[in-house]
User: Fold Sucrose-6-phosphate hydrolase from Streptococcus azizii.
Amino acid sequence: MAFTTEERYRAYADWPADHIETIKQNTKSSPWRTNFHIETPHGLLNDPNGFSHFNGKWTLFYQYFPFGAAHGLKSWVHMESADLVHFEKTGTILYPDTALDSHGAYSGSAMQFDDHLFLFYTGNVRDENWVRHPYQIGALMDTDGHIQKLNKVLIDQPSDTTDHFRDPQIFNYEGNYYAIVGGQNLEKQGIIKLYKAVNNDYLNWEYIDDLAFDNDLTAYMMECPNLVFISGQPVLLYCPQGLDKTVLDYGNIYPNLYKVGQSFNPETATMINPGPLEQLDYGFECYATQAFNDPFGRALAVSWLALPDVDYPTDRYDYQGCLSLVKELTIKDGKLYQYPVPAITSLRAEAQLFTEKTKTDNTYELELTIEANSHLELVLFADADGHGLKLTIDPTNGCIVLDRKDCGEAFALDFGTTRHCQIANQATIANIFIDKSVFEIFINKGEKVFSGRVFPRQDQSGITILSGQATGNYYPLDYGHKTH
Ligand code: FRU
Assistant:
């Protein structure tokens, strides 16, 4: 179903009562529903929001348009988790229901203050001439999940940005609260602005400056910036839309990238000695990654495994998008690593030795080792002829190649069907998570990551080795009862 502007922005209460029931049944009939990844019962999911620790549990929201596979009037849907692997929806929703967020409760972050969770987000407003007014606004959630909006603009659109100004991330640095907001300056260049909470009061923000991080200024907008600290080093994750490919070559419509700096000076809004710009994920889908420092000193991240402005085969089942596994971020030998939290192994059923399989239920993890002077050409989601998602891990030639062209339904063809990265000529470990239509491939425990979607045919559920070898295990994964 193609959505008109009127339908995208129609008030939730104005939809006919049976619409949701109809699309819900359609979504249920999809052959590609995931088993252990967060997706919606119907409608579109995009960015992870408000990832935080609150009331003794993990809190995570997602951006949501309930009425179909389209980007329309967005709300936030709340989930909780005790282990960062199993999530449950609570029923709490942050709705776009005030004059300051009338056209969408857009992305943002969260931080506990006393016994409330402060939600810091962008109110997307369109006036009668359809001119956009972005407001950085807030709400408080109590331990029962009741939300009280602050009904106050906390940060207004600055005079030196366009109406593209959104996605505030609040963070604590050395005892003070700061926020960064993504934007576009009047020269139509992507920038990130840094603010400080005056006297640590989340109602009162003062502007410090544009964040200095050797911004090449070739992007036209920075979406979803996040700053986390790992052993004192700042890690800036962001989505520079339109970044020039001579700065960094990327395959997806919009990239999700990062830089690791040596240190951070909030007084001058400077990331000191920023390292090179790097791909967060070498796969086909990974965007709007949200990261935060938890109260236990870890840096945790979760990504949206879809992209803006791309159609997905699930659209005809009236839903789109899923979230990645929760990944812990660490730095080893100066490099950023991302790997699922330890509790992910709780999904493993009994190990079986890795071999070819004609049929699986496409819900498993492979943990493989490929020796330094060897290679592995593997097909996941394989049919009887060995067609599926082809993964080549080749330490001998120092590369990994992933090709989804023969895996079920084609989509996003404008952006090619292969992705690749370089690896060292060393024994290489791959942890490969397969979930019906999602793959997350972690190389060397998170040194490189390939994430994405495929939409296999019914007969594509095998594992075929085309050439080379690997040793390791196959683990069926069992999430238990899924409520989302
Ligand atoms: C990124 C994004 C954000 C915005 C949100 C709206 O995917 O465009 O910049 O806040 O999605 O849903």
